[in-house]
Specification:
Layout: H1 2-38, E1 41-42, E2 50-51, H2 59-66, H3 68-99, H4 106-114, H5 121-136, H6 147-175, H7 179-187, H8 192-203, H9 205-221, H10 224-229, H11 241-249, H12 257-288
Helix pairs in contact: 2-12, 3-6, 3-9, 4-6, 6-9, 9-12, 11-12
Amino acid sequence: MKKIFKNPLRRWGWLFLGPMAAAFAIGFVWPFAQGIYLSFCNFRTTSDAKFLGFDNLFKNYTKAFDDPKFVSAFWFTALFAVVSLVLINVLAFIVAYLLTQGIKGSNLFRTVFFMPNLIGGIVLGYIWNMIFEGILSNFGKSIVRDPTWGFWGLIILMCWQQIGYMMIIYIAGLQAVPEDMLEAAKIDGATKTQTLFRVIIPNVMPSITICTFLSLTNGFKLFDQNLALTGGQPFHKTEMLALNIYNTFYGSNSSAHGMAQAKAVMFFILVASIGLVQLGITRKREVQQ
């Protein structure tokens, strides 16, 4: 019986996989490969790209590293990603834990907490810009004139938008914790704190892996909220990597397109590397548990 269905699947599998593979190659692989090639070129448009030659192969990458705005954007983004990672996951887990303790109206609270994630980043950025400017103006401050307030403004915006989404993932993980393990811990006399750290959290590690990956990569890739909330002001001090690449490419110097493309390639390598390292570390924790 298996042989009857096995050969047709092998024979006609390409008919179903072919269109998807072609779409993936056209929509992702080819543009990605072209982007890497353009990072070794000088160009104004993709049609007039000129290869720098092997003597100046990494010229655009060298110029990118020599750009103080790019270096500043990297450190600002790294700090933002770490702080937002911790706050989002800690707060999302606390909210998820409380909403799985039989609180009345928990479904309503879940909906309310999740709703900010449905609003676009540009819209949120402009809304929170008006909120912060209205509050800070009473104290003679401005979110676009003070990099400290700009940083924490981005953190608050990111937490407000992302906590509800991560909360849903944590709730799914908490509801999957085996009841027999919780009952065994209770019978053994474990306190709520001991049960939380020795039973619940180890069993929720798959959810922690997913939420950590999403919040970490989202922190590094943040663009639209940064553009709308602070625009990188003042003097590019709140400019993150994605916005720096955008400003480099669409700035007044059209000859910097090659450098902007080199920044984009390094940006991809950075985010992909950090994401893979984080997945490897947290998945090992899952295996141990």
